[in-house]
Write the structure tokens for this entry.
Amino acid sequence: MASPETGVLSARGRALAVLRVRGTALAVALLPAAVAVVLLVGGATGRLGTEGGWAVARWTVGGLTVLSLLLATLVSVVVARARPALSPSVPIAEEAAPDLYRLVRDLADRLDVPAPSAIALTPDCDSWLEDRTHRAHGPPRPARRAGRRAPEAPVLVIGSPFLWWMRVAELRALLAPVVAGTGPSAHPDIAAARRFIRGLDAAAGVAARARGPLRALPLRFVGRVARLLLRAAGEHVVLMERGVAAAASERAQGVDYGLRVVAQEQVGLAYAGWDRLLTRVALPAWRMGRWPSRLDAGVVSALTELSRRDRLAEGFASRLGERPACDLLEEPGTIDRAASLLAARLFHGGPAEPGPDWSPVGWQQYPQEIVDRKWRLEAARLHRVLDELPAAGQADPDREAPDPSRAPDRSTTPADAPSAAPAPPLTYAGARARTPAAPHPASLSQAFDSSPELSAAAPSPQLRSRRGVPRAPGGPHSAAETPFAEEPAACAPPPCGPTLARVIDWLARDTRAGDLVAARLGAEVAREEREEAARQAVRSAQADTTGITWGDGPADGGLPLFPLQPPRTARELLADHVTAMVCCAAVDTAGAAPGLDWLDGPALLVDGARRADLSRPVLSLVDDGDAEPLRGWLHRVGVRPEKPVRLG
């Protein structure tokens, strides 16, 4: 069996190889200077000529020497002054977590390695050591005495979900191989090799972000040199880090070996729950300008729900009775709030500080403030897109031109074409009619009354009166009647939108209807996302007040660093918006309520139970134009699709 010393020796050998790359680069830079010295000394001693070709050689080599020294100085200065990027994290002072610092120091004593210099949390399911000894990463340090540079212990970065999900003993076992890595990190050769690689990486980043001809031209040369040296040392760096990891793992074998196996199982479970919590629960709130203030606390609920669904609750019941690792913090809520805000920045690009358009939300308020509002906004967007669709007789720039060789269908047949039963055009039933022969109606009722096709399918005036549909002045109703005379509170502000029945009928009439709506909806969402991206760019240009170092260049530029989801397709957007409208109708007419599912995000609660069977009927309508499954679902739940939907 290999010993920790074997791994350290292997890592040290690779570190020396990395340093030889640095020495070779320095030798190449000094080679013209060495040749110039030989020529000058040879001319001064008379061993080499002083005129003719020797004089030309001296001047040529002298010029190359000056140029090479200038370029070498430029590369050295940029590498030395470039600020290496740090992993975004929340620093934890010892006063805020004395028990956690005590646990880590006791662990370092058991492993016989130096203790980490500090502890930080990151919103990720991972833990590592990070060197933050660069002078740009902290306050000025006292000057060292003459001699070799004394290595400083790295910072221990812990994934914040681990503290809330794992027990204290599991966290100690999980951190054992990580803390053991401080031993190899303290070796002078390994530390020097790592500093060299970090400097090259930072210099390449500076060159990539350079702007302006006077600055970009010299830095472009520095970037090429840095990338060349990184490629030359790349294999040695990989093997060096493998040797360090092997040495740390071997050293940690004797510390809580049994618990380490259990902790590794919890890592996989925590990662699954954390991913679902971010993509299904946090992302909808982030898109609405809100961020969950207790994201790490939510991972406990998500993982508990996951274990319950997988029938693992009995095994986890006794485990959850033990002391959680978050008890090692003095104020877990404050730390969780900071980690939640950082997660929003990393995965969504939110601002660095809360504000009017970026406020926290608690889990108790999530269903009403996020879920219900999300459904209302999506229903309003769908209504707006449908209302803006072209009416009969108007050309649609996004519609494919009809092919004269094909027989006309109901989407391309002109309104005045002779036909025994002309099909209605692909026009939203709740949209305002815009035909040249009809006046521009001012309400939904006028659109019904002015269109024969819509009037045939529209409810009677008496039924519209009972349901609270607006009445048109001068229509079939009495002039003394006012809109919503019988149900004044049915459509009180916020304004009422179209009925769900109209949307279902319109999407079910032709599969191309769904294609048209999906395309328009995708364009609308893309426009809104571009506007949000522009606002994020403005926020990124502002100064960073959190004290987190993101690397050289503008503060937190390029956020989000880790986007959660790829762009949604137009069909997916249409299905989401139809689902939102169905949920709004269920809340308004069937006594349903918005809810929160810890693994799936927004949920519809009917009689206190979650209804998870809505997606299939909606997909049947959106993809196939088959509305019968959805109508059956609405009938079973008790939803009245003919009533107006309240928009947010």
